[in-house]
Amino acid sequence: MPSSSQQERKTHFGFREVPESEKDGLVAGVFHSVANKYDLMNDLMSLGVHRLWKQYAVEASGVRARMRVLDVAGGTGDLAAKFALRVGWRGQVVLADINNSMLEIGRERLADEGFAGNVGFVQANAESLPFPEDYFDRVSIAFGLRNVTHIDRALASMFRVLKPGGALLVLEFSRPVAPGLNRLYDAYSFNVLPWLGRAVAQDEASYRYLAESIRKHPDQETLKAMMGKAGFERVQYFNLSGGIVALHKGYKL
């Protein structure tokens, strides 16, 4: 009879197959390693364009005064800060992240920038969010969905905590659609990104994983279908930078 370890389902960690029970720990190791250089590396890797992608997501969110917003896998607080300005002091923003190293940097960063009172911080797994049902007006997850072990469970968890009429926004790397972009993107991802990781963050392996994880993430249409299966309606997506990144938006009606 097969042992329990032989029966355990496998998932991807970059291009490797690993037992599902190990993925959270492996991803945690990546983000513990890169936390201190995360913001700098984002600027270098995207030539600053990640700021425009995030601003686009915020504009598309429709967040306004007094709303409750949950930013899942919120990391160092880019989106949380932008949402906090929009909800005002009578609103609420919760930055949730499974990784304590990232969460602490986000907490320190937002405190240094003067955000207090309307921003909370919670260490939480996207697949089992510890919040009441029908609680948030908006939920966002930026560049984090591809790192969860079970995307379907994370989508279901985010659906549960949304209020009826609320919306989920997923900002994530996707599949280039511009002609000829795939080859250039592959060359950049598998050569330049690991080199930057080695030169700047002293961690080539983590940035190679990040490049690989993008290739394993569902493409635009597949993720749209997964959101629909989780219960979201009126799901649509917007390709940014030729499809290198896509913003998916769906409603809980």
Give a structural overview:
There is one protein chain. With 253 residues, the chain is an alpha/beta fold. The chain has one domain (28-178, 208-251): Rossmann fold (3-Layer(aba) Sandwich), CATH 3.40.50. Helices cover 47% and strands 23% of the residues. It has ten helices and nine strands. It has helices at residues 4-7, 20-34, 38-46, 49-61, 78-87, 100-112, 151-161, 181-200, 204-216, 220-229, and strands at residues 10-13, 16-19, 68-72, 92-97, 119-123, 136-142, 162-173, 233-240, 245-251. Strand 8 (233-240) and strand 9 form a beta hairpin. Helix 2 (20-34) crosses helix 9 and helix 8 packs antiparallel against helix 9. The chain is globular, with a radius of gyration of 18 Å. The relative contact order is 0.14.
Strand fraction? 15-25%
Find the structural class using helix and strand composition: alpha/beta
CATH class: Alpha Beta
The separation of the N and C termini measures 47 Å
CATH fold-level assignment: Rossmann fold
Radius of gyration: 18 Å
Name given to the CATH homologous superfamily: Vaccinia Virus protein VP39
Estimated helix fraction = 40-55%
CATH architecture identity? 3-Layer(aba) Sandwich
What is the average of the pLDDT values?
A: 93
Largest sheet: 7 strands, mixed
The rough form would be described as globular
